[in-house]
Amino acid sequence: MVFARVHQTAEGDLLPQKLAEYYGVGAVPGFEGRASDPRRGHLPELMGLRGVAILIVVCGHLLQRVERFYGETSLVAWEKFLFNVLATPFTGCRLLFFISGYALMISLQDKGQSSHRSSAAIEIKKRFLRIWPPYFMVLAATLLFLSATGYKPSGTYQFESKPDSLVVSFLFSLVFLHDLIFDTFPRLFPPGWYLEVHVQFFLVGAWVWRWYLKIRAGAARLSIGVMLLILFLLVSSLAMEYGSRGIRYSVIAFMPYFWAGALLADFRIHRDGDQIDRALRRVWLVGWLGLAALIILGAPFGDALVQLSGQVICLGLIIRASFVGRTNFQRALVSRWLAKVGVASYSIYLVHLQILQVVIELVVINFRQFPVFMLVALCVFWGLSAVMAVSFLFYWLVERPWMVVALRASPSSETSDAGSRKEKTFFAL
Question: Per the structure, how many domains does the chain have?
């Protein structure tokens, strides 16, 4: 990067150097994909999995809009079946929840259970600076656009919901309470429910994880962790079955995914995984099959507890298989292009729905005469191209500078080793 080579040798160089602090490749760790380095705690596989997760979210929303604009009544039975199976953006969110639980456990383990009372406040400040400013900009821009133009998006199920006032919806979205208060997704940005769950998790999960780590590492702690997982599964299934809509989209319902990720991280740290690695290397399709099964299990069916348990098992297989070296699955996850998608995944999440809402409707209107799967192919090409172009622009201009600000919120005493911890946990959102 040219900016990174500029020195403050003259007054004219101050601006490029200042820009380099926010936009240089080294300003935020983890942008380039590379193999794991256990000595530094570098886990690019998690970054690749974040890329996979956000692609599932984007493709799920894309297919939903193709189905709505094309017309469900125009589809034959097997086409409806495929749309029901593949148009499941929630599957990507479940994978992101699992990764967040895993990354938080790794982070707390690395910090050695520091008793510094300000550490929790610092982490909350960092997370706030990481997610709130870009989210505010998306919400504010959407509110201003809708207010100025009077535009009402078609083919949406969430826009015409409570509250009646977009300003009220905007204000409660900003404090991550929209779903809990109104039992509806944020009107200006329906995927904001995921951010609300994540904020709830970060406020509650950090304390649960810290309590768990106070137990002496070993079989007893893992046994307690498994019992907690069973408890969380039962509570989640009850919440999904009998809870209000706000509860069904709260951390109560999604806690099994977070906790299963944490439990897998604890097991991997304190247990010899060589035999598991050898077994997974022989059965090299485990990671791919786990991912395929997770997508298939994404559509609601049958007993909620059975489906939830199956999803958690698939997620565990995916994460565990991703760390087995010299496999096609692991090599795919550490590729540079997937790492870039993973790093920009938050920006992609924030802007993809608005872009798809416009692009997919235009494509369907103009190419409706095509066979449905040719139409889907066109929508995937134009939809993903537009989403990636806008998302990476948003990442560099909006999200990335705030990532640097959030990193600088850390205590100045953190060493370069801590920097490697940031690299693997900072993108855990």
Answer: 1
